[in-house]
Design a protein that fits this description.
The structure holds 2 protein chains of 2 kinds.
Chain A lengths: L37 H14 L6 E2 L4 E4 L2 E4 L3 H13 L4 H23 L11 H14 L7 H15 L6 H43 L13 H19 L3 H21 L3 H14 L11 H7 L9 H27 L3 H14 L4 H4 L3 H23 L2 H14 L5 H27 L3 H14 L4 H11 L1 H14 L2 H6 L1 H7 L4 H29 L3 H10 L1 H4 L3 H10 L4 H16 L2 H14 L4 H26 L1
Antiparallel strand pairs in A: 1-2, 2-3
Helix pairs in contact in A: 3-4, 3-9, 4-5, 5-8, 5-9, 7-8, 7-10, 8-9, 8-11, 9-11, 11-12, 14-15, 15-16, 16-17, 18-21, 19-21, 19-22, 22-23, 22-25, 26-27, 27-28
Chain B lengths: L1 H29 L9 H6 L8 E15 L3 E8 L5 E7 L11 E9 L3 E9 L1
Parallel strand pairs in B: 3-5
Antiparallel strand pairs in B: 1-2, 1-4, 2-3, 4-5
The chains are: A mainly alpha, B alpha+beta.
Chain lengths: 632, 124
Amino acid sequence: MNFLKNNFFVWLSFSGLAVSFTLPASGQEPAGGGGGSYESNTLVSLVDRVFNVESDSLDPEEGTLNWKGRSFQLGQGRMMRARFVRYLNTPVNTMDSRLYLSLLEQIHGRLSTLNQANDPEDIDDPWKPVISSWKLLFQASEFDVDGGNSTVIANLVYDNWRDRELFQNQRFREDIEAAERDRLEVSVITESRKEENRRIHYTKELSRLNEEGVGAPTIDGSGMSSLSQAMKSLAEQEAQLAAQGLKIEEIGLKARLKMQSQIISFLSQRRFQHALILSSFYRTLFKSSAQDLEVGGEQLISYMPELEMIPTVDSLEFIALQALDDVRTGMTSVNNAYDQGQLISALERLQETFFLGEYSLDVVLFPEEKKRVLRELYFDLDEARRLAELKDYDALEELILSISRLADDFPDREAISAVRVAKQASRMKLLGARGALLRGEVTQAEAMLDEAFQIWPLNPDIENFMTAAVSGADHVSDFDVDYKAGDYRRIFDQREEYISALSGDPVRAEQLRESIETVQTIDFAIRAAEERLDRGEPYAAWEVLKEIEDTANDDRLYHRTLSTVVPGIAQFVTDVEEAEKFEREGKFAASLTKYAAAQEYFPASQVVSRGIERMAGQMLDQAQRIEDNRGE
Amino acid sequence: MKNTSFRFLVLFILLVLIGFGGFYFYQNSESQGFSEPLPVYSFMERPLQFVGNHYHLDASIQNILSSQDKLGRIVLVSSEPEGSSLPLFLPADLPGNVEFQQRFRFKVSVEDGGLLYVHSLSKN
């Protein structure tokens, strides 16, 4: 029975969502069992192998994304899921996105050309491409997908120019200031609108978080990543400089600090394209000697352990390029998997790629119809997780079949197999509980019923079992009547109901056990008698039935069988019955005579032999009395 | 001559009558009260109906069922010619031995409860 006590584990995990479900939970060691068993070990490893498609790059518990040894803070697990779901639900504005992508590529392209020229001061108008790129930033900032980050870059660049001697150049200054005026006019209107939208969005988001019991994000600095610490160091340095009163050379330092800080900030926000653009601006604005990071370098080294060198703006740019390349590769992988029907794999890769390149246009421009299919799969898997948690295996089985129709790479056979094993385990426990009740082992029956419930709470057989228990009160009184009447056959026929009803009553449970055993004994004798009758041995058949005469009492099935045996051996049976009658009347000699007569029909009869032996002794006593009378 | 013959004839008749009378007396004294054979089938059918009667029974020893010193034995015999089994009580004071398959004529009385009490037995 040990195997019945084993527990079953099934995990269905989907990527970072950790869509995991546990069939019969817990890793409890079976009571009295050896260490491990087929169900608790082999099944676990089997199911884990089949279902665990969890990516090691995402940690939903910690809310982090690990990418090439770097850790990005993504927020709480539920927030991560919410963002991914929102992404899947967001319609793709292809035209806007492509325009925006084109703008960013133009900006980066112009700055790259400028950088390749190596020495901008040798050209007639060295700042022309920079200024044109700078102007394009304002256009880029008008797109929602930009999130105002282009404006941040533009402002940083503008602040730098304003503090430089070069700004004294009248023509350059007028050009810049005109552009700045135009930008401000547009941005006032745009920002007002954005701020209003943002406020509405935050209000909705906060109320939703409150409803879900999730704490609103805080900015108290706790749980900061290495990047955040670097940014904090930069901010502290800026504040220190401001407090000391700025000198000209310090102004330059402050500008570098600001830009370096913002590049790191863009990286930490995974806005790699903006980090790339700002790095390019930085390179045009500062000489090669100013490429080293002023502060936060140590933290950055810990953030990028593989660098093993003093971090520079170039290295930050390298990271951004590498990330963008990975995003592109990731989305190619998603599309390939999707086109081959391997939707589970596609969803997993999309999720990974989304959290790395959430603001990358490769991710944003993922086709809407594919997103819709993957969203359906995502919700199905999430529902499967919930059903598994609720242990609603019937519904789960249907859902697994539905998912398998959607995704070719879903291991439906193994999943269904695991579900069926759990269901079977529950049924076996219930069977064990019934058996234990039958044996009168009430405590063990209760334990097994509980285990059956733990494995599969919605097991319909449990419901039937419980329903029978509810109507137990009526059955108790019925049982008492039947037991007093000696109607064990009826008790046997009603045993299912009585077992449930009497489970908590040790006295009646014992009576029930005795009754059931009695009927089982009778039935066994009846079957044996029928076999002998079939072999043409009516006397032997009668003998078998006669042996359990007292046990059978008024059992109707017993007497029905007896009535089929007796007609062929009527005289023998009559002699035995009369012998017994004389015996009861104390007429032992007459009884012995009748037994002797019966023995002539069936010399092998044990019943008759025992009767003769018994009566011979009694006859001696009777003879003694006769001799005594004669003596008197 | 006539008288002599007549006397012889009367004497002869007297002797014959005395002979018959002696034989009859002998016969009566030999099976006093046990002249009827036991109606085996009827007795086995209703043993209590024969209580108080005396019979003789020709039977062979089949089995000694039980015995008690100074009291006697319960013996199962096979009646002849019926071949039916009957239980008899042999009191301890009866002379002679009984052994398996020995044939005897038993003089029995039917006692209370249908017990066949053996008063005497003789080998056949």
